[in-house]
Specification:
Four Helix Bundle (Hemerythrin (Met), subunit A)
């Protein structure tokens, strides 16, 4: 079998390729993490603003709990999405040459990942805003590595 494979490779040589990730797509952008983090921030604000009903009206409590649980589920899902997007960007896009230029790169991503986790388990406006600020830092670093000045903006 090895002889057959070697002969095949000899007759049909393939150009060697390389990629910095699992696939050579080359498409990276921290905006997907920002969008997910904005949803986390929005849900956190909505949860903090939601007022529990007074008394024991079962329908009012059911409505309140339904809304609160929906906000919590969205916050959890979007926090996980933001973390996943950041981890892919960190581990697949950035290379040692970037770390030389941005020595705080690993700490910034680690902080962002930890903030995603904190935002999932807490209802903490300060942490949600910190996550947005850290993602803005990552945005600036990322686009700088590409030699581009891309304006950071928020959808909300």
């Amino acid at each position: 079998m090895n002889t057959l494979t070697a002969t095949f490779k000899k007759w049909f040589p393939a150009e060697e390729i390389s990629a910095h990730c699992d696939g050579p797509c080359g498409v990276y952008d921290p905006s997907s993490a920002r969008i997910a983090a904005e949803a986390v921030l929005s849900m956190t604000k909505k949860m903090l603003a939601l007022t529990p009903p007074q008394g024991s009206d079962a329908q009012a409590w059911a409505s309140y709990l339904n809304t609160m649980s929906r906000y919590a589920a969205i916050k959890e899902e979007e926090g996980h999405k933001a973390k996943s997007e950041l981890l892919v960007l960190w581990t697949d896009y950035f290379k040692p040459v970037h770390l030389e230029k941005y020595p705080n790169l690993h700490d910034t991503f680690w902080k962002a990942a930890k903030l995603c986790s904190a935002c999932k388990v807490e209802v903490n406006l300060e942490h949600a805003e910190e996550l947005m600020a850290t993602i803005e830092e990552i945005h600036q670093i990322f686009w700088s590595t590409k030699g581009r000045d891309v304006v950071y903006y928020k959808a909300s």
